[in-house]
Write a structure and sequence with these properties.
heterodimer; A: 319 residues; alpha/beta; 6-stranded mixed beta sheet; 4-stranded antiparallel beta sheet; B: 244 residues; mainly alpha; 15 helices; 0% strand
Chain lengths: 319, 244
């Protein structure tokens, strides 16, 4: 439902977004990741029809954002970066304004506004000028505005920025609830958010897409993916290490620390293998006493760091 | 049309949420009173007319209208709400016209509230109310011209103070277009036809012809096309500068 084709944006000599293409279909929550200045917001602004692309285009529900902007914008709920809203208005009159612009009148308008207020729990601050609201409430006003017309496509630039952990949890639940019926594109800095709500993640750096996959697929790119960490009592450690490295699916065993007289090892699998079962079975068979054993599924922030560091360094060399 | 109306309503209401509207109206009424009755010599003239009242309008507008328009677009850009506004299903014309109309109606409200002056002159004498009506129409048209200039300039900068100062300067050029100060800059090198054209662009000349009770079609067309041109430029500037 969101279709992005070779979107490119150049500011003077600086290429902010470099031929980014991807699609988001109904039922998908796509997390858009990248370091600051990677082009996330610029891409979203172009998809929402605020910025004109240098080349390429985007379509919302089949409506091209450049040739058919009004129809495209009707299908779109957009939460801009920083959740801007008319600060002298109250959330209630602001949402009424949005509902009118969206074409609602009378009872339908009241229902839509009430629903948006309910979903974002704004009831207690309806008549306070927006400029006097806390950051969390402002963000919720922005969210309410974006979901008011129950759009099939939702684009949100950092929807949970500035919220406390409870509010983050609520907003994520709200996103998950809506996700079945919508195509959602959201940008975030918080990698746990990707694991919590996204069905797919795209990492961009220096204007280019450098990774695209489910959160699990991205985690699998971590060098520690499926590695097993064990802690063994110091006296038995040296012998155990040698024997562990003989398991056929293990590629290497590496000592990573000696906490409280024990020794910790990181056991790396051969590519694509899962070794947790093998290691624990082996330990039982060989009567090696493990004080701790855990499998690492891979950490998104590690993947993010290694991917974006390379891409940013490469872009630096090119310029 | 519907969308323009909704934007218009929001904009007009926003004047009255903050003290801006009340401060503006009070100052406008206070200054028109002073200019009409004391500086303009309303009583000393011994005439039942509002010439002394309308005569000062261009000068009042010169400083007061930019105060209305300075925030129109610069505030949207500074606070980021422009991104919200322009990603709603509306077109640029809707936004530009809605905002302009709200400012114009607001100026109209201030103008209508000067009615005690009209009552006074009718109580004291027997003025030609047709001339007075023409004066009000002319004043409103001229206010529209000032507003369109101010709205355009507000789209050039995020800074309201700069928008205000620039609007005053550009408006002053239009007010004085028929006078030596401006014309001297052109005489000597520009052909006579250009100088004539510039002198016809003067707010003062066009306004005073309406104020005499003659609703000159040329003056109406002048103000209308001035408003149109500046709003057109306004829409282009917003489009160009919105993302900065």
């Amino acid at each position: 439902m969101i279709e992005i084709r070779k979107l490119r944006k150049q500011f003077g000599g600086f290429v902010a977004v470099d031929e980014v293409s991807f699609t988001v279909s109904k039922g998908e929550v796509l997390g858009f990741l990248g370091p600051n200045g990677a082009g996330k917001s610029t891409t979203m602004k172009m998809v929402a029809g605020f910025l004109n692309p240098t080349s390429g285009t985007a379509a919302i529900c089949g409506h091209d954002i450049q040739t058919d902007p009004i129809e495209a914008k009707k299908q779109l709920g957009y939460l801009p970066e920083g959740a801007p809203a008319y600060s002298d208005m109250s959330p209630y009159s602001f949402l009424n304004f949005i509902a009118q612009i969206r074409g609602y009148r009378g009872a339908e308008l009241r229902r839509r506004v009430d629903e948006a207020i309910g979903k974002t729990s704004l009831e207690s601050h309806l008549y306070v000028p927006i400029e006097n609201l806390s950051k969390g409430f402002k963000r919720r006003v922005g969210l309410a505005q974006a979901i008011l017309h129950d759009p099939p496509v939702l684009i949100m630039d950092e929807p949970t920025d500035g919220l406390d952990p409870n509010q983050k949890f609520e907003v994520r639940n709200l996103i998950k609830e809506m996700s079945k019926e919508k195509a959602i594109l959201l940008s975030t800095h918080i990698l746990e958010e990707v694991e919590a709500v996204c069905t797919r993640a795209i990492i961009i750096a220096a204007g280019k897409v450098i990774a695209d996959g489910t959160p699990a697929e991205l985690q699998a790119r971590d060098v520690n993916h499926n590695a097993v960490f064990v802690r063994i009592k110091g006296s038995a450690a040296g012998e155990a290490r040698k024997r562990l490295s003989q398991i056929p699916t293990v590629s290497s065993v590496e000592e990573i620390g000696t906490p409280n007289g024990s020794v910790s090892y990181r056991i790396a699998p051969r590519k694509g293998e899962s070794i947790l079962a093998a290691v624990s079975q082996f330990a039982r068979d060989e009567k090696i006493e493990l004080e701790e054993i855990r499998e690492e599924t891979g950490r998104l922030d590690e993947v993010f760091r290694s991917l974006t560091k390379d891409a940013t360094a490469k872009a630096g060399r090119e310029t | 049309m519907d969308k323009i109306w909704i934007i218009f309503k929001r904009e007009l209401a926003s004047y009255f949420i903050t003290p801006v509207a009340y401060v503006f109206i009070v100052i406008f009424l206070f200054l028109t009173g002073i200019f009409t009755f004391s500086i303009g010599g309303f009583f000393e003239r011994g005439q039942a007319s509002l010439e002394s009242f309308f005569g000062f309008h261009p000068w009042l507008y010169l400083f007061l209208i930019p105060a209305i328009t300075m925030r129109l677009w610069s505030e949207e850009r500074k606070s980021g709400t422009i991104e919200l506004l322009l990603t709603l299903p509306i077109s640029m014309q809707h936004a530009v016209i809605g905002k302009f109309m709200a400012a114009w109606v607001f100026a109209g409200i201030a103008l209508v509230l000067t009615f005690p002056v009209w009552i006074t002159v009718n109580y004291l004498g027997d003025p030609d109310n047709g001339v007075i009506a023409a004066g009000y129409i002319g004043s409103l048209l001229m206010a529209g011209g000032f507003l369109a200039i101010g709205s355009f300039i507000s789209s050039l900068t995020k800074n309201q103070v700069i928008a205000f100062v620039l609007s005053v300067v550009v408006s002053l050029l239009f007010v004085l277009a028929g006078f030596g100060v401006v014309l001297d800059a052109f005489s000597g090198w520009a052909p006579q036809s250009v100088i004539d054209a510039i002198s016809r662009m003067s707010f003062l000349t066009n306004f005073s012809s309406i104020g005499k009770g003659i609703i000159d079609m040329r003056s109406i067309i002048y103000f209308a096309s001035l408003i149109f041109c500046f709003l057109f430029a306004n829409a282009i500037m917003v489009e160009l500068k919105k993302a900065e």
